UniProtKB/TrEMBL annotation:
High-level lineage: Bacteria, Pseudomonadati, Nitrospinota/Tectimicrobiota group, Nitrospinota, Nitrospinia
Name of protein: Rhamnogalacturonan lyase domain-containing protein
GO molecular function: carbohydrate binding
Gene3D superfamilies: Carboxypeptidase-like, regulatory domain
Signal peptide start-end: 1-26
SUPFAM superfamilies named among the record's database cross-references: Starch-binding domain-like
Listed transmembrane segments: none
Organism: Nitrospina gracilis (strain 3/211)
Length: 269
C-alpha cells in the first residue's frame, strides 16, 4: 500500500523546514529601511610575529621576463609575497562582519573587481556574495590588465583542505573580462565561507575573500580600522577573519543612534 508513505513524506518535509534548509533559508537576508541605526567601530590587532614572506622566483616559469618586472621584485626576479601584513600591530586585510542578522540596510550597488595585473591579483583580500535569485551578472568580475599575457582565473570555495571549483575561465588578452557572478550560485549557506582565487598559468598569483551573507562587512586597511554603519539596534555576533591568521567572534550590543566600539586581537598561528 502507498498510503503509509504519506506520513513519512510529511515528516521529512517538517524536518526539512525545521532545520532551516527550507523556507527559512530560502528567505535569506531582507533589506529594510533602517531607522535610528547605530554604528560599530573598532580595530583589528595582531599578536605575535608575522610569518616571513614567501620568496617567489619570478625569473622561472611562464612569462618569466614579464612577471619578473613585478614592482616588488628584486633585480634578479625574487619577489617577497606577504600573506600576513601588519603595521604597528594593526592587521591589514581582515574582514569584519555581522553574523546573526536577517534584515537591515540594503546591499551596496557595486561590482567587486579582481585585477590580474603585473602577474599579481588585486585586491589581496576582499568579499564576495552569493547572487540573489535572478541575478546572473554584475556582482563579481575579473579583468586581465597585463598585455600579451594569458591568465587563467580559477575560483574555489574552500573548506579546510577541501576545494570546490566554482569557475575556470581563460583571459588571453589585456582588457578581457570574466563576469563570474552566476558561477557563485554554487556557494552554499552554512558551508562556504572562504573564496580563493588563483591563476592556473601562474600559481603564485593568489587572492582570498570572505563569503558574506549580508551587507554588514568591512575590510581593514593598514590601520586595522573598520566601521559598520546603519546597524539596527540589537545584540550581534561580530567576527574578524583573516584567511591566514584565523578568526575571532565577539558579542556586542548596538544602541539606537549610538556608537559601539569593539576591538579584536588575532594571534599568529
Amino acid at each position: 500500500m502507498k498510503t503509509p508513505m504519506l506520513p513519512t513524506l510529511a515528516g521529512a518535509m517538517a524536518l526539512w523546514l525545521a532545520t532551516g534548509t527550507g523556507l527559512v533559508q530560502a528567505k535569506g537576508y531582507e533589506a529594510v529601511d533602517v531607522k535610528n541605526g547605530g554604528t560599530l567601530t573598532g580595530t583589528v590587532l595582531f599578536k605575535g610575529t608575522p610569518p616571513d614572506p614567501i620568496m617567489e622566483d619570478l625569473s622561472k616559469g611562464k612569462n618569466a621576463e614579464f612577471c619578473a618586472q613585478h614592482p616588488d621584485a628584486t633585480k634578479d626576479g625574487m619577489r617577497p609575497r606577504h600573506k600576513v601584513q601588519v603595521t604597528d600591530g594593526k592587521l591589514n586585510g581582515a574582514v569584519v562582519f555581522i553574523q546573526n542578522i536577517d534584515k537591515g540596510k540594503d546591499w551596496k550597488d557595486e561590482t567587486i573587481q579582481f585585477d590580474f595585473k603585473d602577474c599579481d591579483i588585486f585586491p589581496k583580500v576582499s568579499v564576495v556574495r552569493r547572487p540573489p535569485r535572478g541575478v546572473r551578472e554584475g556582482l563579481v568580475q575579473i579583468v586581465n590588465q597585463d598585455p600579451d599575457i594569458l591568465h587563467n582565473p580559477h575560483g574555489y570555495a574552500v573548506k579546510g583542505a577541501q576545494r570546490k571549483t566554482l569557475f575556470n575561465k581563460p583571459l588571453p588578452s589585456k582588457g578581457d573580462v570574466a563576469d563570474v557572478t552566476k558561477n557563485l550560485m554554487r556557494m552554499r549557506p552554512g558551508r562556504d565561507q572562504h573564496f580563493f582565487l588563483q591563476c592556473d598559468q601562474h600559481n603564485f598569483m593568489e587572492a582570498d575573500a570572505r563569503v558574506v551573507w549580508n551587507p554588514y562587512y568591512a575590510v581593514t586597511g593598514k590601520d586595522g580600522a573598520f566601521t559598520l554603519d546603519q546597524v539596527p539596534a540589537g545584540t550581534y555576533k561580530i567576527t574578524a577573519w583573516h584567511p591566514y591568521v584565523g578568526e575571532v567572534t565577539k558579542e556586542v550590543t548596538v544602541g539606537a543612534d549610538g556608537t559601539a566600539n569593539l576591538d579584536f586581537e588575532l594571534t599568529s598561528k
